[in-house]
Amino acid sequence: MRFVKPSALAALSLCGIAFLGACNAEESGSTLAVVNGVPIPQARFDFVSRMQAQSGQGQKETPESRKQLREALITREIITQEAVRKGLDKSVEYQVQMDLAKQQVLVNAFLEDYLRSNEPTEADLKAEYDKIKAEQFDPNAREYKARHILIKKEADAKAVLAQLKKGAKFEDLAKKKSEDTGSKAKGGELDWTDGANLVKPFADAMKTLEKGKTSDLVKTQYGYHIIRVDDVRTPQFPAFEDVKDQVQKQVLGRQRDELVDALRKAATVE
Question: Domain 143-233's class?
C-alpha cells in the first residue's frame, strides 16, 4: 500500500484551537525563515513539532519531515499575511475565534500546571487501585469455559443428546449438528464467560454444571442447547503494575474535575 504525503496546505491544521494562541504568539530567538520581511521564529517550529510528537500525529522526525513542517509554516505565514491584507483580522468572527483560542490555551496551561503540582504519589495510586478492586472484584465469582450444541427442533436435539450419552464425542457432534454458526466450527467452543453475556436460561444451566459435565436440553429463544463445561476458574483482577497508567489517568481526571467544580462554586455568575 502506498502512503500519500500530506501537502503543505494540509499540514496547516497542525495548530488546532488548543494551540492557536501559542502558535500565533510573539516569539523571540532564532529565525526559521523570513516571509515578505516578516520573520518566522524557530520557536514556532519547535512548538508545533513538539505538539505533533505528543499527540502521536508525527512519525519519527527526519530531515524530510522537518523540511515539510518548515514549508507548512511558511505557507501558513503567506496565507496569514494575505488574510490580514484583506482585513479579515478585523472581522467579528475572527475576534471571537481568537478569544476562544486564547481561552483554550490558558485553560490548558492552568490545568496542566495544577496537575503537575499535584501529581498523585505511588501511595495515592495504590489506594485508588485497592478501592477499584474492592468495588469491582468479587472473589466468589466464577468464569466458565463451555461448549454447546444448538438444535432448533426438539426431536433432533433429543437425538443428538442420545448420541452423546452413548459415547459420541461432543466436539464432533457440534461440528456436524450444531446450528450455531459462530461456534460449530470450533466444536461448539465458547469464550470464557461469567454468564453475563448469555441468555438467562443458558447461563443458569451452565452455572449448575461441574467441570466436565454435560447438561440435558436447555431451551432458549434460539432453540435447544446441550451444554458442556470444560473448565471453571476464579476471575483474575489485573495487577497494579499492569493498570497503573489507567489508574493515574482516572485520579488526575477526578482531581481536574474537583478543581473545576470548586472554581465554579467560588465564582460569582450573574
Answer: alpha beta
